Structures are given as structure tokens and as C-alpha cells.
């Protein structure tokens, strides 16, 4: 009896989303500043980690792939893949085009390496080797500098927060032993189903390879949580967007209950996949953001975002000058801040479904802002809608209608194959991150 129990215990220990030993995982170092008042900031020594979805996934004890291209290859069931497959360490610069220098992180869009080609990346700020840096947004402001002059139509340099677990899910799911050190535990308001692992389990049973993305697919499970898009942008358009969820923490959905980008019914899940966005171009001010405009995207600038009860406000600093977000010119919508009145009026003016309030609105968003968030820094293209929802007219039939025009990019732009071939060297740099009470991170 005792020998059987011991054997069963060994099996349980082996059944885990673990880490391999082919390459040592060494996180690039990156500093940031914690502020208490203008001009009073302390440097924090941090590091960054790339998301587990980008990593080489292979059979434990060897080098055979568990996942190749956009298909699972080395295993076939949830239990087998969870217990047999391990995540490998990363060569950040050579493989993923990600590098740090002091307080700056640069992400290159396409990177060719000895094993193939990497497209885009998603990284997280770390507090230690095994824990993500956690931020409580309510009552605080988050500030960073950005250089995105090479990000053309169809690209998205996104800096945002999601309510991931600090340890990447190891405490919540015993089957996840790789944890934050290997970038596990991603979630967002789209209830991401393109993840190879969700809730510590392999997302393999029912996985469908993408028909237009050689590296991606969609599985039955999705990782869901509130999302605060501080910055989704390229050199043509930008948007700041809160996304509340009914459940204010990491949670798992399955198939028809997920909603979001990866489901037939976008509104089926418990999160607001669309959010309540402030995109200056969409709000009627077309000469505000872009190359040579008020916020000139041909050169570096600073983005400041403030979070208070029921209110999100963003402004910019460039060449030492504060630039307020412009007031909307859309009929029936007023102001330059995101609050309850703005969201309610925007949905009505644009004839959009108010999913924001259906999932709890500001009550749920405020609850989330009082919680803890992980900082995400990424660069990506869009195989579902060509990024038209950020920088062009979307949906296409709403061109020239209220809320339909979101940027000056053509409707035939953003096709991933074109973007990847024409703008492979595009790079975004996030730097000089500062965080502290409202009014503490900038002097203007």
C-alpha cells in the first residue's frame, strides 16, 4: 500500500506545467522609479520576462517539440501535455528582438533567428525572479516615455495592465510549477484562448490552428481578467481603454462562455471585450495625434495616466510642454476624461452595445483599480481585424458614421503578411517608467 501511494505521489508531482533545462532563464534588467512627490522619486531595480506563449515548448528530458508552428505535435491530451511538456529559457535579443538598457525596453517587431522567425512579443515587469511587480492603480498615476515613430498602420505598441496572479498562477494551480519566472498566467478581457496553457493546463483538446497565422491557434479554454489599456498605439492612432469584468480576478472560461476576439459571440463572456475607449481621432479631433500633429509621433513623448474613483485621465508631455487630452467634438459627448457620463454618452452616440455596464460598469472597474495589476509591454499585429479598430474605419461599414473612423489608415491596411514583410524592423521603446500618487511623477 505504501509503495503504491509513493508511486501515485510521484505521478502527481510530475503532472505539471514545468520548466526545462536546455537554456538558463536570465531576465533582462530594467529600472523604473517609484515617486512620492514631483522631483522625489526612488529608482527600483526590476527585470522583465517574456510571456510563456512565445517560448519553446518541448518534451521533458529531450528536445522533441510539444508545439510546432501552430499545432500541438508531441502530445495529444490535456493531461499528457500538461505533465510531459516544459517551457524553456529564452535568448531575449537573438530570438525575440527584446532588449533593455537602463530604464528602457525596446521591442523589435520581426526577428529572424537560427530556428526560424519571431513575430512580436509580450513582456512583463518583474519584482524578483519569480514574482511579477504588482501595481495598485487607484489614487495613483502611471507615467512612461515612448518612441514609436516606426510603428505604421496595422501595428500596436501596447502598454497595459491585467490582473494576473503575482506568481504566475503557481499558488492557484498546483499543475503550474514554471510560474512567473517563465511568464505564465496571462489573462485579459478578451478571455484569451490563443494561450497554450490556461489555468495550469494544456489548452490542447479541441485546439484549432489559425488559417492565417503560422504561429497561433485557438483552444477551448480562455484566461480572463480585468484589463486596463493605458496605451494601445502606433504612429497614427492611440487609445486608452478600461475593460471591467464581472469576476475581478484571474478566472478560466470555456468555449461558448468566453466571448471576446476568439469566439463567435463577442459578448458571451463575463468581461467587456470592447471597453470604454478614448481615442482622440475617434472622438472627432483628427489633428491631435500623429506625425507632425499636436502630439508629434515622429519623436519621443511622455504619457501620463491618472486613476481615481470613477475617473481615468490621460495627458502628454513633449518638449517640456504639457498637452491635455482634447475635448471630444462628438455630438452628445463632452469632456476629455473617461468617467461614467462619458462612457454612457459615447455608447449612445456611437450606437454601440454598452457591455461596459452590463458586466458591472464603474462599480467593477473601481473594484479592480483598488486591486493589484501586472504591467504588460508588447508589440503585435492583428490577424483578426488588421488593427482597423485602432487606426482606420471599423467596422468597415461604419466609415464616416459616428465612432466609425478611428484613424487615418486605409481600410486595406494592416494585413499581417504585408505588415510583417514591409515593417519587420519596426521598433517601440518604452522607458523612464514612473509610478506614484497623482501629481507625483511629472513636473510641468
UniProtKB/TrEMBL annotation:
Keywords: Carbohydrate metabolism, Cellulose degradation, Disulfide bond, Glycosidase, Hydrolase, Polysaccharide degradation, Signal. The keyword Ribonucleoprotein does not apply. Its EC number is 3.2.1.-. The keyword Disulfide bond applies. Residues 396-424 are annotated as: Disordered. Gene3D superfamilies: Glycoside hydrolase, family 7, domain. Residues 1-18 form the signal peptide. InterPro entries: ConA-like_dom_sf, Glyco_hydro_7, Glyco_hydro_7_sf. It catalyses: Hydrolysis of (1->4)-beta-D-glucosidic linkages in cellulose and cellotetraose, releasing cellobiose from the non-reducing ends of the chains. This is Glucanase. GO terms for biological process: cellulose catabolic process. It is an enzyme of class 3 (hydrolase). SUPFAM superfamilies: Concanavalin A-like lectins/glucanases. Belongs to the glycosyl hydrolase 7 (cellulase C) family. GO terms for molecular function: cellulose 1,4-beta-cellobiosidase activity. The lineage of its organism: Eukaryota, Fungi, Dikarya, Ascomycota, Pezizomycotina.
Amino acid at each position: 500500500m505504501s509503495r503504491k501511494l509513493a508511486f501515485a505521489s510521484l505521478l502527481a508531482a510530475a503532472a505539471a506545467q514545468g520548466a526545462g533545462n536546455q537554456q538558463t532563464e536570465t531576465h533582462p534588467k530594467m529600472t523604473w522609479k517609484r515617486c512620492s512627490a514631483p522631483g522625489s522619486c526612488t529608482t527600483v531595480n526590476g527585470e522583465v520576462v517574456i510571456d510563456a506563449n512565445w517560448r519553446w515548448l518541448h518534451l521533458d528530458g529531450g528536445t522533441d517539440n510539444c508545439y510546432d508552428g501552430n499545432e500541438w505535435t508531441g502530445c495529444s491530451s490535456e493531461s499528457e501535455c500538461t505533465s510531459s511538456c516544459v517551457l524553456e529559457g529564452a535568448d531575449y535579443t537573438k530570438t525575440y528582438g527584446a532588449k533593455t538598457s537602463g530604464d528602457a525596453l525596446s521591442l523589435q517587431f520581426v526577428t529572424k533567428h537560427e530556428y526560424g522567425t519571431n513575430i512580436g512579443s509580450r513582456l512583463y515587469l518583474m519584482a524578483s525572479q519569480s514574482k511579477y511587480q504588482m501595481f495598485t492603480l487607484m489614487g495613483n498615476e502611471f507615467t512612461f516615455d515612448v518612441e514609436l515613430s516606426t510603428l505604421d498602420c496595422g501595428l500596436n505598441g501596447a502598454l497595459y495592465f491585467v490582473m494576473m496572479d503575482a506568481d504566475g498562477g503557481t499558488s492557484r494551480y498546483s499543475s503550474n510549477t514554471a510560474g512567473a519566472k517563465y511568464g505564465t498566467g496571462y489573462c485579459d478581457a478578451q478571455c484569451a484562448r490563443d494561450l497554450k496553457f490556461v489555468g495550469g493546463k494544456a489548452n490542447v483538446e479541441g485546439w484549432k490552428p489559425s488559417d492565417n497565422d503560422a504561429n497561433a491557434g485557438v483552444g477551448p479554454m480562455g484566461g480572463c481578467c480585468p484589463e486596463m489599456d493605458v496605451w494601445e498605439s502606433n504612429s497614427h492612432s492611440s487609445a486608452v481603454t478600461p475593460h471591467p469584468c464581472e469576476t475581478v480576478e484571474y478566472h478560466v472560461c470555456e468555449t461558448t462562455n468566453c466571448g471576446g476576439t476568439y469566439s463567435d459571440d463577442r459578448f458571451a463572456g463575463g468581461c467587456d471585450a470592447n471597453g470604454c475607449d478614448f481615442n482622440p481621432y475617434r472622438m472627432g479631433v483628427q489633428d491631435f495625434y500623429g506625425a507632425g500633429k499636436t502630439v508629434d509621433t515622429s519623436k519621443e513623448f511622455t504619457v501620463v495616466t491618472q486613476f481615481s474613483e470613477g475617473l481615468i485621465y490621460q495627458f502628454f508631455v513633449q518638449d517640456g510642454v504639457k498637452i491635455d487630452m482634447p475635448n471630444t467634438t462628438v455630438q452628445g459627448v463632452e469632456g476629455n476624461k473617461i468617467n461614467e457620463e462619458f462612457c454612457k454618452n459615447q455608447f449612445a452616440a456611437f450606437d454601440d452595445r454598452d457591455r461596459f455596464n452590463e458586466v458591472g460598469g464603474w462599480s467593477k472597474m473601481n473594484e479592480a483599480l483598488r486591486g493589484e495589476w501586472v504591467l504588460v509591454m508588447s508589440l503585435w499585429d492583428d490577424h483578426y481585424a488588421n488593427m482597423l479598430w485602432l487606426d482606420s474605419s471599423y467596422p468597415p461599414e461604419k466609415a464616416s458614421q459616428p465612432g466609425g473612423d478611428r484613424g487615418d489608415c486605409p481600410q486595406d491596411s494592416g494585413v499581417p503578411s504585408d505588415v510583417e514583410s514591409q515593417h519587420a524592423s519596426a521598433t517601440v521603446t518604452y522607458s523612464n517608467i514612473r509610478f506614484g500618487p497623482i501629481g507625483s511623477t511629472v513636473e510641468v
